[in-house]
Amino acid sequence: MSGLKVLSVASEVFPLVKTGGLADVAGALPGALVREDVEMRTLLPAYPAVKAKLAGGEVAHEYADLFGAPARIIAGRSAGLDLFALDAPHLFDRPGNPYLGPDNTDWPDNARRFAALARVGADIGLGAIAAFQPQVVHAHDWQAGLTAAYLRYAAERGPGSLITIHNLAFQGHFPVSVFWELGLPDEALGLDGVEYYGGVGFLKAGLLFSDVVTTVSPTYAREIQTAEFGMGLDGLLRSRGGAVHGIVNGVDDTVWNPNTDSALAQPYNALRIDMRGRNKTALQNRLGLTRSVDRPLFAVVSRLSHQKGLDLLLHALPRIVDRGGQFGLLGAGERLLESGFGDAAASRPDSVSCVFDYDEKLAHLFQAGADFILVPSRFEPCGLTQLCALRYGAAPIVSRVGGLADTVIDGNEAALAAGVATGFQFAPPTVDALARAIDLAFATYHDPAAMRRMRLNGMRADVSWRGPARRYADLYRSVAKIDG
Known about the structure:
Layout: E1 4-9, H1 21-33, E2 38-45, H2 48-53, E3 58-63, E4 71-78, E5 81-87, H3 89-92, H4 110-125, E6 136-140, H5 146-152, E7 160-165, E8 173-174, E9 195-196, E10 199-201, H6 202-209, E11 212-215, H7 218-223, H8 227-230, H9 234-240, E12 244-246, H10 277-287, E13 297-301, H11 310-322, E14 326-330, H12 335-347, E15 352-355, H13 360-369, E16 372-375, H14 385-392, E17 395-399, H15 402-407, H16 413-418, E18 424-426, H17 431-445, H18 448-460, H19 466-479
Parallel strand pairs: 1-2, 1-6, 2-5, 6-7, 7-11, 11-12, 13-14, 13-16, 14-15, 16-17, 17-18
Antiparallel strand pairs: 3-4, 4-5, 8-10, 9-10
Helix pairs in contact: 4-5, 5-6, 10-13, 11-12, 11-17, 14-18
């Protein structure tokens, strides 16, 4: 089979709109699939920033009424992506975060907004745009979860379907009253339909009705089928059996390339790894830390949340400083965590510095300048930060969960002796276990040959989309509906 056509349905796509890793995946996967002979087009909402990028696009389809007002699908190309944008001003013509209003709470009509996105995804799958008839529809997370339900209850035979769980914690659970706005038949409101704990479950619907379910690492695929990590959906996921697959994410290795990265003070590669040190000096200067090659620099690039285990790190931070290390943070989130790290920076400005923001360019310098990148998550579907760290020669220190366990080779005694370690894993997610991993990192840092080997191992690891794209292409072909 050649020239397979796939429609991706996502609520955010990098570089047009991004709040998290979902956008990175949705933005990178289409390009990676080209070598697999898969043509992917992406449907996303026409938020103001997206609509501005597609000002010259063509109207591919129109709706006289889509959840309360006219709408249209604009086809165009931006940032190397072939796009369909759902131009529904009554739903998406809002500034700022795609999901949150000015008061930082969910938009009250999010159920209607993302039901519309899913409905249009199903319509395209069923042939609404003659110029692009997909054989597979790939939905991402709860925002696109109803796509498979609309396909399931359509009168005609639809394309194959696949849904990817990027984070099971976000499920799209709404009051049952929204059901009668969705345009689904009454029979869909049941345990074998979209009903979920007395309401409507968007993600639940996608997991139930999609031909294939994927998530973003093999370990997370196993974890979410347990009560500990399944968040109420483990029974459904277990019942899907062999339909659940874990595929580790990649990173765009043209964007994340230390040899060509304009955000760095000094480009470098594995053959010129000694040049990397200039980025550490640049990062120390940027953060106002004491310039020193002898002090290991630990860093975090993350949303600040309980899930990410940053409260554990806050308690372990004195261990880093007391042993002569430095710490830099880039990220924002929960107020108590910001306050705690801010206090630590105020008390030791030579050793601790925080930037409570998300700055894509500065994130690249963090990866190139830090000696260790900390990812102490309590659960982590895949994680991209540690993949970027490997690419840039910063050794990750990660909890042994989800994709972190799948992508970092632990620097235990045997791995260090064999010269294959790329970082450090710790378990369980506790302050004591994290502190022990930090101690191992210090010991490795003060053994220059071991530290150099660990950096080079990470830089030589394949964290690209090539392998994952091949696996997605195989799954698409396994479920594709072909005419005739």
